[in-house]
Amino acid sequence: MAMPLPSSGPFSLDDTAFMQRALELAAHARDAEGEVPVGAVLALDGGIVGEGWNRNITLNDPSAHAEIGALRDAGQRLGNHRFPRSTLYVTLEPCVMCAMALVHARVARVVYAADDPKTGAAGSVFDTLMSDRHNHRVEVRRGLLADASATLLRNFFRSRR
Question: SS3 for 65?
């Protein structure tokens, strides 16, 4: 049986600022690299420690999702593979691959903008981030700047048709 979707709102000013940055990275993915516009920011102790955007096509790498890019960037900056107390802000609900990377990285919280009704792993389709089968569970908040993210994605796919 599916778990209920994670909660939405209210969000802090920091939450909004970090999601705005993730949206900027999503636009960069679209404009600079012709990628599906998804951006991600990993924040810790009030600052950004990792940034990423979709680069699957650019890098010929199916794992080069925005979330993975942000985790890799943070790993390089912090010299660690685990990020307890961190929050990942992402413009689209993480897929299963990214969700498991977030679990393994011990990310404390995920805030995402738009739901992904096809492959979402934060409650829309799968409950990967919140599963009690894992030794680490990630708090999930949904819907921050969802309209802006959904519009960015919708316009991108319309332009491709």
Answer: coil
Amino acid letter at 50?
A: G
Which residue among 24, 35, 51, 67 is the active-site one?
Answer: 67
pLDDT in tens, 117-143: 999 999 999 999 998 898 899 999 999
The pairing of beta strand 109-114 with beta strand 139-142: parallel
**Residue 67 bears catalytic tag:** yes
Our separate counts of H helices and E strands in the chain read 5, 5
**Span 64-78, pLDDT tens digits:** 999 999 999 999 999
Q: How much is the pTM?
A: 0.94
Residue 89: phi and psi, rounded to 5, are -105, 125
